[in-house]
Amino acid sequence: DGKIATNKHVAYPWAYDTGYMATIKEYEQKRLAGNSQTRHLAGDVKVEGKLVYIGCFLNDTHVSGMQDLINCTPLKAGATNDVDVAIIQINTKTLPAGVERIVDLNQAAVTDDALVIGASVYTIGFPAGFDIAQTAQGLEANNQDGKITQIRGDVEFGHNIAIQHGASGSPVFNQYGQLVGVINAGFLGIGDSYNMAIKAKYAVELAK
User: Could you give the C-alpha distances from 131 to 128, 141, 142, 164, 165, in angstroms and in order?
Assistant: First the structure.
């Protein structure tokens, strides 16, 4: 039905950029307060995020601009920012022609017991976005592997798959091809080996 799992910070970025929102609010309040005719409105300023567009591009296709974007609509997201997953849906509610290999989000996710330090994990995604993905053949995903390096509680686990900005929302699989997580963050300033993923069970729960 065209549903896609991604990160909440991708679908609802303003939920995480509170500093930027606060700066806009402060600027607008000062502007209003500086005019005697609008001073009474300064206390009523509210700043809210608004989505202009969100969509996806198909792997192994030529992408030349936004006209190639497949438009989507956000459906729902994790109840808190710690649960950094969201579900978006292609506006036609169908997968594009030729897309056959999917992760069935209606199936149960792997149990937490399967997430152990040293377990092999694999991802398919677009770290660094178009900078790496654009090739002579068109848009091509990066396929990488690594290990689970840390158990971070009920929501996240650590891994050492190299990521960069743009990898957000990439699926993480185990050696059996089962979905175990969704890449959401990394400590990019201290190297490539300290990264995180949200456990797959949260994407599965949202998709129900």
Answer: 6, 11, 12, 11, 11
- Find out whether 196 and 37 touch, Cβ atoms under 8 Å: no
pLDDT tens, position by position, 123-174? 999 888 888 888 998 989 999 999 999 998 899 999 998 888 888 999 999 9
d(Cα 142, Cα 119) in Å, to the nearest integer? 20
What number of residues does the chain have? 208
Does the pTM of the predicted model rise above 0.90? Answer: no
Instruction: Let me know the angle formed at the C-alpha of 120 by 119 and 122, rounded to the nearest 5 degrees.
Output: 140
DSSP state letters, the chain: --EEEE-HHHHSGGGT-HHHHHHHHHHHHHHHHTSTTTGGGGGG----------EE--TTS---SGGG-EEEEEEEE-SSTTS--EEEEETTSSPPTT------TTSPPPPGGG--TT-EEEEEE-TTTHHHHEETTEE--EEEEEEEEEE-SSSEEEE-----TT-TT-EEE-TTS-EEEEEEEE-GGG-SS-EEEEEHHHHHHHH-
- Tens digit of pLDDT for each residue in 81-135? 999 999 999 999 998 888 877 887 777 778 888 899 999 999 999 888 888 888 9
